[in-house]
Amino acid sequence: MRIKKPLAFVTNLDLEHISDVSKFLKRFKIPTFIDPFNHKDTKKSLAELAVWEDEIKRTDFKSILKFGHTPTSRVWRKLARNWSNKFYFYNYRPYIHTGLPFKFKTLSLNMSVDTIQYRFVTTRRTFDFPSKSEHSFLQAILKKYRHFDFFVGNSLPAYTFLYLDHLNVSIWGNRGCNGIDGLVSTFAGFAYAKRNIVGIIGDLSLLYDITGLLMLKNAKSSWRLFVINNKGGKIFDFFGLSKNLLNKTRNIMRAKHNVNLEGVVTALGLKFYSISSESQLKNIPERGVIEIIPDNRATVLAWRSLLKS
């Protein structure tokens, strides 16, 4: 088997597979997109092969190797639509059956790789996000709690982390068809199992799983749950799905709301804090729900800057 000019995607790789995947990719020096949703040991092992979205767009890759789950990156979706690329999937989960599956023994003994000539960039390009944007808040949280594990919700938080310096932290999440259902409950499970865990979800995610807060009441670990309150599902704007809709229809799609999150959280017996600037992160105690009120215009400017890069 010959694989021409491959690009690898590694997402949510199980810990027992890190060594095999790392040895294989390093042997052939294959450029690798490391998804935020990975254990920090995976990221550390593959950091020397790391490439980023803007670099992928400028490079002529001929085939794709996917290890683990479906990548978060929008680049993956664009590549997946272009079937001139040849896809190979390393599938260690039986319910994944798309693509051309392969095994490491076969790869090690009976294959060759034409690796693209590529200058690896091991440090992440940093972005100067507008103050009070969702991006700026998440970047500040990541820096402040860099010694914690993270649970990141679906929707915009997951996609924002692609542009942050996430390689030194483990990030967990409910990826897949479940959407935003059950995110608070899953985070509560981590709060019981982990000593230090930070959760970041959207406002609709909290409202979809309010009863999950009841489990958090008895979690004694050092946890904090940040909720980005941008008054609805702004992810539809990010993907351009609401661009040509009437305002009334757009608001229905966004599930726009005026729910008082403080009332919801305190009614269930949990501590609640609300912040509207990054400087207020300094005095956040543990075991509480923290509402982030971003500047929506600053967030729009941040996305425009990123999507042009």
Question: What would you say about this model in short?
Answer:
By secondary structure, this protein is of the alpha/beta class. It is about 35% helix and about 20% strand.
Structural topology:
Layout: E1 2-4, E2 6-11, H1 18-28, E3 32-34, H2 40-46, H3 53-56, E4 63-68, H4 74-81, E5 86-90, E6 100-101, H5 104-110, E7 112-114, H6 134-144, E8 149-152, H7 156-160, E9 171-172, H8 183-193, E10 196-202, H9 203-208, H10 212-216, E11 222-228, H11 235-238, H12 247-254, H13 261-267, E12 272-275, E13 288-292, H14 296-308
Parallel strand pairs: 1-7, 2-3, 2-4, 4-5, 5-6, 8-9, 8-10, 10-11, 11-13, 12-13
Distinctive features:
6-stranded parallel beta sheet, 5-stranded parallel beta sheet, 35% helix, 14 helices, 309 residues, globular, alpha/beta, single chain
Give an overview in words.
This protein is of the alpha/beta class and 309 residues long. Helix content is 35%, strand content 18%. The chain has helices at residues 18-28, 40-46, 53-56, 74-81, 104-110, 134-144, 156-160, 183-193, 203-208, 212-216, 235-238, 247-254, 261-267, 296-308, and strands at residues 2-4, 6-11, 32-34, 63-68, 86-90, 100-101, 112-114, 149-152, 171-172, 196-202, 222-228, 272-275, 288-292. It has a six-stranded parallel β-sheet with strand order 9-8-10-11-13-12. Strand 8, helix 7 (156-160) and strand 9 (171-172) form a beta-alpha-beta unit. It starts with a strand and ends with a helix.
